[in-house]
Amino acid sequence: QVQLVESGGGLVHPGSSLRLSCAASGSSIGIYDMGWYRQAPGKQRELFTRIFRSGNTYYKESVKGRFSISRDNARNTVYLQMNSLKPEDTAAYYCNSPGWNFPWGQGTQVTVSS
After folding, report:
1. Which of 107, 69, 65 is nearest to 90 (CA)?
2. Is residue 49 within 8 Å of 35, Cβ to Cβ?
């Protein structure tokens, strides 16, 4: 069973950057596609970026060009570099494997506010 722990969130000003980490344990995530999800207050959790086993990536239009997903299979960790943050990026951020849906971690809160 894979356990996921997200970290790296915080309160930042618009235009700032953050780097989130998702550390996995219990199994190697190298064989899985992995993704980052976010859930804003009053909204459903949404998948907005994923990295395939091949290393190919997908980004939802709202984050394309600002966010970058990467993975380090040796460290069993997935990263999310977020640049040019906007207030609408405010949400709780989670990682998981699309389609496998491991138990959700506690998430990490990102708040973008002036």
Report:
1. 107
2. yes
Could you tell me the sign of the dihedral formed by the alpha carbons of 34, 39, 40, 44, in that order?
Answer: positive
**pLDDT tens per residue across span 47-62:** 999 999 999 999 999 9
Q: Measure the CA–CA gap between 107 and 95, rounded to whole angstroms.
A: 8
Given this model, what pLDDT does residue 64 score? 98
Output b/e per residue, 62-80; b: 16+ Cβ within 10 A: ebeeebbbebeeeebbbbb
Query: At 80, is the secondary structure helix, strand, or coil?
Result: strand
Tell me, what DSSP letter sits at residue 97? -
Q: What are residue 91's DSSP bridge partners? A: 110
pLDDT of residue 99: 82
Place of tokens 């496998």: 100
